[in-house]
């Protein structure tokens, strides 16, 4: 494990339009002890405006990794939380910033985790939200809830720092629960493989309409992301799916005693 759990947190900015916001976000992060920045298709980067706004945090910009898609940017992440300026329908209440920060910190015991910010104009698209296991929102003024991107990064940066400096913030390897493997969280890729398997199986049984799988698949994702199965549990679920695809026809003896209650005789 890293010296500080904050080292296991990556901040992802998606489709940022104004380079100044990337610089301001880098500064907001460094002040809070966060250093890992990932950028998905930034409109202008590297850029002198970004450098100017970053001030002493230019090294964060130099080390920032750039990706073509959010999927690629969070591929190695065990847990991914998206931020939003408004409540979005995912079937889940958005977490408060403090709750999200504590949960992210806890999840670092399983590896790298990500906090994702959308672009200035539209925020995260539904497809980008599909890459996120949970959603968080600053419940700001409902009439005008959209924070400047870097200001949002600053709020979450502080919440993460506050959670990290709280005593006993993160489960450590000496924690008996950790040793039991309770925190062997699946990677984002393993969760994706599970979702693909689930969709394929449910199309096979006829439960999902292959012409229109989106809505139901999203509801199921939300359900399993909220449950946060660990790796063993995920393997059990995949085993169940395989047994639906290829049912084993056991002999009567293998099935054991017949438990169907005897039919009561009429009259
Ligand atoms: N018009 C967009 C606003 C995007 S603001 C929309 O309606 O979604 C750019 C980004 O800043 C958002 O995608 C989110 O990552 C962050 N942000 C802005 N306001 C926020 C808030 N109230 N809570 C959490 N994140 C917020």
Structure report:
The chain is built from 12 helices and 6 strands. By secondary structure, the protein is of the alpha/beta class. The protein has 2 domains: 5-165, 3-Layer(aba) Sandwich (Alpha/beta knot); 186-245, Helicase, Ruva Protein, domain 3 (Orthogonal Bundle), CATH 1.10.8. Strands 3-2-1-5-4-6 form a 6-stranded parallel β-sheet. α1 (19-31) runs parallel beside α2 (48-54) and α5 packs across α7 (149-165). The structure holds S-adenosyl-L-homocysteine (SAH). S-adenosyl-L-homocysteine binds at residues 83-86, 117-118, 120, 122-124, 137-138, 140, 145-147, 149, 152. Residues 83-86, 117-118, 120, 122-124, 137-138, 140, 145-147, 149, 152 line the site of S-adenosyl-L-homocysteine (SAH).
Structure class: alpha/beta
What is the helix fraction of residues, given as a range?
40-55%
Q: Which CATH class of the largest domain is shown?
A: Alpha Beta
Low-confidence stretches: 173-181
* Number of domain units: 2
Helix count, per DSSP? 12
Gross CATH architecture of the largest domain: 3-Layer(aba) Sandwich
Strand order of the largest sheet: 3-2-1-5-4-6
């Amino acid at each position: 494990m890293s010296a500080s759990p904050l080292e296991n947190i990556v901040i992802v900015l998606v489709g940022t339009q104004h380079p100044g916001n990337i610089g301001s976000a880098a500064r907001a992060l460094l002040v809070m002890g966060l250093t890992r920045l990932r950028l998905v298709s930034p409109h202008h980067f590297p850029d002198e405006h970004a450098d100017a706004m970053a001030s002493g945090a230019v090294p964060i910009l130099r080390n920032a990794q750039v990706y073509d898609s959010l999927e690629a940017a969070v591929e190695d992440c065990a847990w991914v939380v998206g931020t939003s300026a408004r409540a979005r329908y995912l079937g889940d209440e958005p977490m408060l910033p403090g709750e999200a920060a504590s949960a992210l910190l806890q999840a670092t015991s399983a590896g790298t985790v990500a906090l994702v910010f959308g672009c200035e104009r539209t925020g995260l698209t539904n497809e980008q939200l599909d890459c996120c296991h949970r959603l968080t929102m600053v419940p700001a003024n409902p009439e005008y809830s959209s924070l400047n991107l870097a200001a949002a990064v600053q709020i979450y940066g502080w919440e993460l720092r506050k959670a990290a400096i709280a005593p006993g913030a993160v489960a450590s390897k000496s924690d008996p629960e950790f040793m039991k493997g309770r925190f062997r969280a699946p990677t984002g890729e393993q969760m994706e493989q599970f979702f693909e398997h689930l969709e394929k199986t449910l199309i096979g049984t006829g439960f999902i309409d292959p012409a229109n799988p989106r809505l139901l698949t999203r509801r199921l994702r939300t359900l399993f992301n909220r449950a946060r199965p660990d790796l063993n549990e995920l393997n059990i679920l995949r085993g169940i799916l395989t047994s639906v695809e290829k049912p084993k026809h056991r002999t009567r003896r293998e099935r054991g005693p017949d438990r169907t209650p005897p039919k009561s005789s009429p009259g």
